[in-house]
Amino acid sequence: MSNTTDKVKAAYTKVKGEVKEKAGYYTDNAETEAEGKKDKIKAKVQENVNEAKDVRDDFKKKINKD
C-alpha cells in the first residue's frame, strides 16, 4: 500500500469524523458526536504514523546514498 493511499485514508477519516461530530451536535445525539470525535482521533494517529513512515523512508534513502 502506498503512502499516498494512507494519507488519503487519514484525510477521509478526519472529514468523516468532523461530519459525524457536527451532525451529532446539531441533532443532539451524543453517541454520533462521540463517534465523530473518535474518528478524528483515529485520523490524527493515522497522520502521525504516516509522518513517521515519511521520516523512516527519508532516513533509508539517506543511509543508502552513503
TrEMBL record:
Q: Check the record and name the Pfam families matching this protein.
A: CsbD
Domain (CsbD-like): residue spans on this chain: 6-54
The highest taxon in the source lineage is Bacteria
The family line of this record is: Belongs to the UPF0337 (CsbD) family.
Q: What is this protein called?
A: CsbD family protein
What is the scientific name of the source organism? Answer: Terrilactibacillus tamarindi
The lineage, from the top, is: Bacteria, Bacillati, Bacillota, Bacilli, Bacillales
